[in-house]
UniProtKB/TrEMBL annotation:
Record-linked NCBIfam families: four helix bundle protein
A Pfam family recorded for this sequence: 23S_rRNA_IVP
Organism: Alkalimonas cellulosilytica
InterPro entries linked to this entry: 23S_rRNA-intervening_sequence (IPR012657), 23S_rRNA_IVS_sf (IPR036583)
Transmembrane regions: none
Annotated signal sequence range: none
Name of the protein this chain belongs to: Four helix bundle protein
Length: 126
């Protein structure tokens, strides 16, 4: 990484995004097995696992601009993932009153906030 964010912040987002990806993979498996839902769950899988992949790529960014670009993509993927979670809830594939669904939505919002903060602080030169 190019020294744009401190090590604690960097490790936090790496861990958070990986843990979130694991939960998304398990949710996608559940949606396929229990609901035979393949289209929306595949979109969720792609965006939800892409967050961590881009965060990891950013860790070895070749420049500050490369780091910001990868973190920006991760932020966009987090927003997309939240969209798919909300859509799956509103269409009855997920029960938005269930603690694990609430937790996933909360976790996606936390990722969005942290990634947005990292991008903005990196762009400002912090």
């Amino acid at each position: 990484m190019v020294g744009v964010v401190n090590a604690a912040e960097s490790n936090c987002i790496v861990t958070m995004s990986f843990d979130f990806a694991v939960r998304v993979v398990k949710l996608q498996q559940f949606l396929v097995k229990e609901h035979k839902e393949y289209v929306l769950s595949k979109q969720l899988l792609r965006s939800g696992t892409s967050i961590g992949a881009n965060v990891n790529e950013a860790q070895s960014g070749q420049s500050k601009a490369d780091f910001i670009a990868k973190m920006s993509i991760a932020s966009k993927e987090a927003r997309e993932t939240k969209y798919w979670l909300e859509l799956l809830s509103e269409t009855g594939y997920l029960d938005k009153t269930q603690p694990h669904v609430v937790s996933l939505l909360t976790q996606s919002e936390a990722l969005i906030k942290i990634l947005t903060k990292i991008v903005k602080s990196s762009q400002a030169g912090s």
